[in-house]
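Input:
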Amino acid sequence: MEFSAEDATRSDWDFLARVVESAISNGASTINLPDTVGYTVPGKMAELIAYMREKVPNADQAVFSVHCHNDLGMAVANSISAIAAGAGQIECAVNGLGERAGNASLEEIVMALKTRKDHYRADCRVDTTQLYRTSRLVYGIIGMNPPMNKPIVGANAFAHESGIHQHGVMANKETYEIMTPESVGLTQNKMVLGKHSGRHAFEARARDLGYVLTDDEVKGFFEDFKRMCDLKKTVTDSDIEAIISSKIAAGQGLYRLARFDLQSGNKVKSTCAVQLEKEGSILEDVALGDGPVNAAFNAVDKLTGPQSRKLLDYAIHSISQGEDALGEVAVKVQDGKRRVTGRGLSVDIMEASILAYINAINKLAEMGERYDEEVSPEFGNP
Amino acid sequence: MEFSAEDATRSDWDFLARVVESAISNGASTINLPDTVGYTVPGKMAELIAYMREKVPNADQAVFSVHCHNDLGMAVANSISAIAAGAGQIECAVNGLGERAGNASLEEIVMALKTRKDHYRADCRVDTTQLYRTSRLVYGIIGMNPPMNKPIVGANAFAHESGIHQHGVMANKETYEIMTPESVGLTQNKMVLGKHSGRHAFEARARDLGYVLTDDEVKGFFEDFKRMCDLKKTVTDSDIEAIISSKIAAGQGLYRLARFDLQSGNKVKSTCAVQLEKEGSILEDVALGDGPVNAAFNAVDKLTGPQSRKLLDYAIHSISQGEDALGEVAVKVQDGKRRVTGRGLSVDIMEASILAYINAINKLAEMGERYDEEVSPEFGNP
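Output:
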């Protein structure tokens, strides 16, 4: 049983100690002391844990835990300093996602514990080689890219720019690398795949990247891979990860995009004709719009009505790098009280947009009338 | 004179103390002790400062400074703990940008000092109401969005999602708000501007947002604003900020987009016809491409050759929120050894792409053959 005292860091510590004592004597085996508004600082957090362990007579019968928010950018340091003071549990989140500025970032805490084991003398059983892939998957689900300077998982996290550093790393890795890219599961592009690569090479690479796939999945992903090879000169590991993780997150559905034809420009209204496949038959219609995305979505609306749907948000970002980068679109669509996120991925940003919208509509169709309450992502309390 | 000892936190402290003493006696008035690889932890950083102030006989003749990297997510906490131990200078960066996982984030340090003045008893002369705008401008220049959960400046930083928190904030702001949105310069949308707003209303709003504009600039931005009103139902503060800060960063140039006409789809090659204005005359051509962006760029290439240019990177993201969100495209283009970033902004993602590419070409044209060495953004050492 876990007992959690919201806003513990700003509470009266003496009163809090009496509450904690009572919680433990009533059966709480974990005592969570959240820094609900991200107000505390590392030294204070350590003091709080030490205070409780000293003042609460039955403190040894429970594990102390912290739940830190990142409003002033110190959630990771606050969590780690709690561990140094004797906390045995940290509540954190992949990529630090959470209410407002978020919670302590799981991957940063894990790597700080591993890298500074000499100092903290604490450990956890997280397999660090899964951190990179897990982070990408979670960012993918919410339709966001890792910030390039995000510790551990950002594109620049292991990139040494300055000449003197590069020289140092080449001479002796430990000069500037306190942890290796491999330790967090970042693989190098050892083999470049392209249009002449066969299914076995693709399957082997996916396995190297950590994906355990069924035969049907391999077949489906390989088709996507071949299509991508027609559009990109070389397909990198991050492209393959993007295909697989986006498909895993997106699933299948009622409608499938067969064809679209777009006419657009800055002096004309945009026009988009869309063909959708639905249960074996082809639906087709055309629509005008303000801009190409609006025209395409209007055409999809005509084919999939009735029109109680509302597009709440449209976000686009590029996933891989270079001239033929993959674009990923995330749309948030509301229908009555149901709210879903759809995602689409393509080297063609218009196709990515249409795929995302269809994905959202498929999710709504699958849901049926199941939800009569608003469905929205709930980020952590306390 | 500032003396900086690279990788100070991992050095032999005793030896370091002797080096620092010598630097001060030779005239150094600032002693910088960088945590070059982001290895240290708050307690240790405080110890280092205290150690130097105690062991270096002439320590009182210099200001101690730290320069923290964020590899383990603790740059802000490490910097702040140095202040608590007597450091008088912090080297940090807007948005925490810097090599690898970056440096300590200026806005987080400033707000931590202000918010926890009771604890740190230190201050700085930064005008906090400029933090939000400065952050957006810097993100804009590098073509990046603030991560939604970035402390202080992210879209969610002040958004209370959970019901109990919202109730608390309504009852008493201080319950969950340790700092106000206004204190970092986040203004509320008090007045919505639209197609019936005049130039004076626009100018007043820009002034409220902190932009001091010349008459010519007001005229130019107002035209962009009116065009945006044709495409968006309402124009928000963040739209206006996006228009102005993107224009300020992008400048003017040799080529201007007059018109484009695009045909695209998933079963046909894309075609794009482009008209550019160059010194009063109109150039026009059409090109095929793999996808709409590629076709448009090929057409621009035909009009602006010779073709030693290479597109290194293409990145797109949405700036404002909602159905008619602004898209911003950043392209990195190389010509010989010159390398530039171009940016384009529009509610039409195709137009944003073409504008970004033209912006890059204009920058190259303006440069001429001035640079024979590679120009690339240099992020901070040590």
